Amino acid sequence: MRIARHLAMCGVAARRKAEELVAAGRVAVNGQTVTTPAFKLNPATDQVTVDGKPVAPPKSKTVVVLNKPVGYTCSAADEHAERLVGELLPPALGRLFTVGRLDRDSEGLLICTDDGGLAQLLAHPRHEVSKTYRVRVSPHTTQEILQRMCAGIEDEGDLLRCSQARVWKRESQTDVLELILKEGKKREIRRLCRQCGLHILRLQRIRYGTLELGDLQEGAWRHLTPAEIDSLRGAAK
Question: Which residues carry out catalysis?
Fold first, then answer.
């Protein structure tokens, strides 16, 4: 890569200005001053300085999706937790935090990242990024209950509400509900179901904004593609 382009990628200056810095003798590669903008380097191995100060491209952000199993706590450290979600991710990813927590007994799609801006965009209620859950409950659910969930239910001073609620699958003794939230107050689905007299047998998040859990195996993770990240950003109001 030409030295001027590398300097531009490092945020030092636009390419033409970077060429002027090189011509002025202010740039060194591996300790040797470079004076020609045509000089080429290997960004992976060569050390570049400007006025004696090291420069490097900004570290790319990490965004992964994890299929969280039951029993793992969404916290970087918790002395009361038996297992933390960070144990499911390799140390090489660095310190990541979760977006839109799932409680210990819930499972499914969990976004983990070191991109604070993206996390804020996805998690803040004002952006109304939808979260979709499949919830197995007993006994069977009535249409009246689903309407109550969407109309809103007061609980401990909070107004709890689903954006959408439907019976996704009816089984012999249970229903699997599909519930969509756009705010996500603490343990909101569990509190809604308790208020409606429903016992939760399984709670799984299957979608966050435009991102779907798909066939990702329990406990497995993968990097999001740039297109997926852009689509998530676009899901926020």
Answer: 103
